[in-house]
Write a structure and sequence with these properties.
There is one protein chain. The chain is α+β, with helices and mostly antiparallel strands. The protein folds into three domains: 289 residues, no CATH class; 114 residues, no CATH class; 58 residues, Orthogonal Bundle (Arc Repressor Mutant, subunit A), CATH 1.10.10.410. Helices cover 40% and strands 20% of the residues. The protein has 15 helices and 16 strands. A nine-stranded mixed sheet has the order 2-6-7-10-1-11-12-13-14. It has a three-stranded antiparallel sheet with strand order 5-4-15, with no helix packed on it. α3 links the parallel β12 and β13. Bound molecules: adenosine-5'-diphosphate, zinc ion and magnesium ion (MG). Zinc ion (ZN) binds next to loops.
Length: 480
């Protein structure tokens, strides 16, 4: 048998840290990057006898996430203890949700490669507390625990095993991430671990009806590693099956450097955790009205903006996709268009030059240092003929380096377009004198010669001459 005879089955458990100001069961701050153990109290340090109190914002954010992903919201829900010992979890249990999660039976729609839509079902979304962080080998080979992250609220979004390729996984994760960003429940900073996924992979022969045994790669926080890890794991599993072996259900660790997965531990089953309702916390009861209020407060979601851009602005599917993929870019587009009234130009800047610079600098859209007003002003300066589009590119680079008004930049750098007829004429005449061959070529019908002449004039003026005026003037002068 070969690779083609197998089908890939993937299910994801995504953990997103909620951007509430305080932790889930105490009032410690959740800010990332503080000195170790400075954002802790007896509750989140797991001292015996302390009492947790559920942060209402956590429930609100989780319900928001559920509604934005088409889930049913449970009016009756509760917190359960999931028991396990781990050094970054001093209580020896994590407060999570077991049989009554806040949200169930949702879905996210993704575009598949053949141009169709596919629903990826969401089994559940539940709330839980994050664990602390172990710092290995930082001080003389020991391991130290930092409990700042302990008690930071998480939602876990569990998909059904509906994904069948790395492309689908990528699309699902990006869609989910953008939804959470749009509804502002998580900053989804992957490098800070606020959006991370456990990736469950199995393979089965196409003729088999039963799913294969899965392995699970824990805590993946980069799109690239997720794709690489899944590809590796598919090959590894097929090789084992082809050799007549069996897949062990286990948790794996992906090693970025060697490009391989390693076994961490046998995978526990639910019964190993001895779940039971947390007796320190009251049940969570939500009224229909409470849920409806949250529903009414949801902002416009990426899906709807996407359709609107295609219909209202006649944007291509692809361009709309790029802009709405980030709420920040999408807001930038809307605000700048509103100011300069040239949405076509604004979207072009975002899709081409701004995206390229973000890529080169490995920056996230929300790190763009200039405002939507600055971008709008840049577009207006081109529209008014104050600067050419080639100068505008230089202004944009400068706006990234040292953000200020585009007008100030061009004044300071002396980049204002030359639109003075006399000055343009002078340049044109000089270029014509220096390039008699091109003039002859143009007269002989070689239109390309005009492009060359304009290019020479641009060079002479360091790109500052008004290109439309140059074109016109050259033709006039030659035909004189
Ligand atoms: P656990 O916490 O034990 O991993 P969950 O029910 O929270 O269990 O998550 C299981 C995840 O594994 C889900 O995302 C589910 O879609 C996925 N999954 C289940 N069975 C398979 C399988 N055979 N192949 C791939 N993924 C699977
Ligand atoms: Zn605390
Ligand atoms: Mg799992």
């Amino acid at each position: 048998m070969s690779r083609q005879d197998y089908e890939v089955v993937i299910g994801l458990e995504v953990h997103a840290e909620l951007s509430t100001k305080t932790k889930i069961f105490c009032s410690c701050p959740t800010k990332f990057g503080a000195a170790p153990n400075t954002q802790t109290c007896p509750i989140c340090m797991g001292m015996p006898g302390t009492l947790p109190v559920l942060n209402e914002k956590v429930v609100e954010y989780a319900v928001k996430a559920g509604l934005a992903t088409n889930c049913e919201i449970s009016e009756n829900s509760k917190n359960d203890r999931k028991n396990y010992f781990y050094p970054d979890l001093p209580k020896a249990y994590q407060i999570s949700q077991y049989d009554k999660p806040l949200c169930e039976h949702g879905y996210i729609e993704i575009d598949t490669q053949d141009g169709n839509k596919k629903k990826i079902r969401i089994l559940r979304i539940h709330i839980e507390e994050d664990a602390g962080k172990l710092n290995h080998d930082e001080f003389g080979g020991g391991t130290l625990v930092d409990l700042n992250r302990a008690g930071v609220p998480l939602i876990e979004i569990v998909s059904e095993p509906d994904l069948s390729s790395t492309e689908e996984v990528d699309k699902y994760l990006k869609k989910l991430k953008s939804i959470l960003e749009y509804i502002e429940v998580s900053d989804c900073k992957m490098q800070e671990g606020s959006f991370r996924a456990d990736v469950n992979v199995s393979v089965k022969k196409k003729t088999d009806t039963k799913l294969g045994t899965r392995t699970e790669m824990k805590n993946m926080n980069s799109f690239r590693s997720i794709t690489r890890a899944i590809e590796y794991e598919i090959e590894r599993q097929i090789d084992i099956l082809e050799d007549g072996g069996k897949i062990e259900q286990e948790s794996l660790r992906w090693d970025e450097v060697s490009g391989k997965t390693f076994s961490m531990r046998d995978k526990e089953d639910a019964q190993d955790y001895r779940y039971f309702p947390d007796p320190d916390l009251v049940a969570i009861k939500l009224s229909k009205e409470y849920i409806q209020n949250i529903k009414d407060s949801l902002p416009e979601l990426p899906e709807s903006r996407h359709n609107r851009y295609i219909n209202e602005y006649k944007m291509s599917e692809k361009d709309a996709g790029i802009i709405v993929s980030s709420k920040y870019l999408s807001n930038l587009f809307e605000e700048a268009s509103e100011i300069c009234k040239n949405h076509k130009a604004v979207s072009n800047w975002i899709i081409s030059d701004i995206s390229r610079i973000l890529n080169e600098k490995e920056m996230e859209p929300n790190e763009i240092p200039f405002t939507s007003k600055h971008l709008a002003d840049l577009v207006t300066l081109i529209d008014k003929g104050t600067i050419s589009s080639s100068i505008a590119k230089k202004v944009l680079t400068e706006m990234f380096e040292n953000p200020r008004e585009p007008e100030e930049i061009i004044k300071e750098k002396g980049w204002i377009q030359i639109s003075d007829e006399g000055a343009i004429k002078e340049v044109v005449q000089k270029v014509l004198m220096d390039n008699p061959q091109s003039v002859a070529d143009f007269k002989a019908g070689k239109d390309r010669a005009l492009g060359f002449l304009v290019g020479q004039a641009m060079k002479a003026t360091k790109g500052k001459a008004n290109p439309q005026m140059l074109n016109k003037m050259f033709v006039e002068e030659i035909n004189k």
